Fold each of these.
Amino acid sequence: MAESDSPPKPVYLIKKKISHGGHHGGAWKVAYADFVTAMMALFIVLWLMNTSKPIKEAVAGYFNDPAGTSSSTGGNGKGPAEGAGQGAADSLTVSKDDMSKLKDELQDAIQKVQSLRNLNNQIEMTVTGEGLRIELMESEKGTFFDSGSPDVNESGKDTLIALAQELGKVPNKVSIEGHTDSIPLARHGGEYGNWELSVDRANAARRLMQEHGLRPDQVTQVRGFADQRLRKPEAPKDPSNRRISVIVQYVPLNPSGQKTSGADAPPSSDAKSAPDDNHQ
């Protein structure tokens, strides 16, 4: 009887909450974005490692001065509007690493001129310590100049114009040389010889190239060597000794490592400066 009088025990209901994990707070998106950014940076580094020196310098110049107002990126300190043209020119500067590429481009330009396609043996391009040397060598009958004449013939005009149009696109300075063979040339009572002829031919090439692509300040030197720099010393009378040489000069670096104007490059020690047009 006593047991029946005791109050009933309370009943407790336990409910378990089942969780499905939600969206994990979106942390995976942040990790994925970091991964993609790292991969992009890796591919940019790999691309830069395989580009030419001018492109690397242009990219570095942009990050150093995004506004383009610094002289190191072509802005010459006068603001982006005035410096934009010079900055574009700097990116086209042909350095030692790119001379071979310029050589190929010039050869392609010459091949596009139908009248010059058969002159491969008369046009020689080599990369030297001075720059890209372009040799226009004469044949026995005369390829670019008539024999003994300072006047450029039709083949010479086509060749020099094609070269000028391509070289005018780069800011590198250019020097032009005239050479003869060892056959004596005596005119006007001995007052006009191989020295005068070599100078006049170089000057004629300079005038024609400046009229068709080269800038007025792009040619730094016009030199005549007569027969003092024979291409074939063992055959001093060989026609190939008579030639015009166009040298695309390297762009030197000043002590701070910046490119300087080609005009600042010192001439070769044995160079003979040619007179101007008043010589004739």
Amino acid sequence: MFLKISLFTAVALLLAACDPNPAVVGKNLSLTGSPPATEAPVAAPPPPCRDSFGRDSILLRLRRKIAAGEYLIIHTFVPLCDNEHQGIVPVNARLGDGLNLRTNLYWGAGYGVKSFFLAQKSWKLRQATPDIRPDILERVVFEKKFPNGARVLLVADAYRGDRMKACLQDFLHTLAGHRPDTLRLEGHPAPIPVGQPDLAVFNGHNGLMDMRLPAVGQAPGLPCRDAAVIACASHNYFRQRLQCAGAFPVLTTRHLLAPEAYVLGALIEGWAAAEPETQLHVRAAKAYAQYQKCGYKGAYRTFNAGWD
């Protein structure tokens, strides 16, 4: 069963996630429980490792893989919502239990990553593996074939809520090509290199509001890849880290938001069709406005695609 939120909580969280009014934002109300970026510790930005770059070579590689029938790999890093160990305004105790996969806001609740994709008939659950590492409570693998022939593997890892640092480090090292990780999948003879994804996604509370982590430089010879950070006010916190890692920001955020899985779902629909990042921005905004029942213009301003 999906966990439901009380009407009062839902209304309050909805306002914070959708309303651009500073008076509302100042109340620290968001479905993530994350404080506004203006109240978070400001991390010193890492020095840029390279100039910003375009996405043409990435799109070309995606289209070649689609034409060849190869898997497009998405690796999603999900730090479970945690009232005790993350710098958030506490949510319902069950939603904010960073060790409870079944009820956690970002995993087992109705719009958590695992629950949301389980509910989508077009996505097939291929694997669900518990405790693959001390930091990771569960890994799930979903597969979908798209009308353009794209075969997408979505790998999502649920990190313990008290292991935010490990989750962020793994995300940044994966972006930069420094984290070997493979997956054995039934019916596929060779190990699948999920440590070298075509798209890497961070989905949850913006942990860089709470801690400082150095940038990770791109591994020599590694092609650039796509990245998305679905977390509150993520653009300014992650921009230079993505630049250093050689990861193009197809989707980040400018304001507070509810980092729920319908945004990821909408992003993937366009990304698997090798759409430009401007269209991915539109898809994310439409999904957010639909599920949050807020205006499209405000939802569009919440997200960002590209470097600027």
Amino acid sequence: MQRDKHRTDRKHRNADPVAPATPGTMLAAAADGECRRIARALADTRHRHHGIHRARKAIRQLRALLGLLAPALDATDRARMRRIDVRLKRLCRSLSPLRDAHVAALTASTLGDAASPAERRTLEAALVAHRDAAAEEALQRDPGFHSRRQAIAAIRDEIGKLPWTALDARVAKRAIRRSRHRVERAERKAHRTSTSPLLHRWRRRLRRLRLQLEALEAAMPAGTGAPPVDRAGHHALKRQTDRLGRLQDVQLMCRLARRIGPVRDDPRLRAVLAAAMREARAGFAAGQ
């Protein structure tokens, strides 16, 4: 008797069904992808400064994703999550001086009326030299960022052990509420006392909320119980983050440039920095 090949094929397909994608599994895959992105960025020898920027950006995205899972965790997994987050923060901070030096050089190249073309070139050259020296020193201590790449590989393994299937719409809404409350508190403090650390905290929390909303929109289509998509609100978050970012980039450039001898000892360049800072503060106050 001839076997019914189609019936056999159907039997095998039914015996090994493909598990449906859930918000938790999709966000777990996204977190794993960010880990791989960090490792690739740190290994980028051709575009070293851009690789550092991409690595820090992916770390921020990864920490935002982990924040969505936090309300679903029990005490044991919360402790594991804290250890992971500490290691991610340590990795990000180890790259911060290198990224700051690159941002300062880029910001100098975009100065407008605050500097003449010659002053802008002089300031940028001094900051580029500082940036390149900082990167060279860091790579001497950690050739090829090998230890950092090992760290993210270990973190990736730990993240894979977290209970991502527990992340559903209810958990996601709790996480978003918490992020919104943190943004509101940071904004109130920044308005009361507009210091650089408070403005920076406000910006970080705005960015984290935006990243979480974007991740949820990708993992939980409309109608699945996800938090409602507010595209106007997303754009407002992005604009506010960009405004704070421009102000902080100029503050960073001024702070680093004043530590460099040729800039610190040149009255013209010190005047350029002061003018750039006034222009950035005026632009932020005007909502530009």
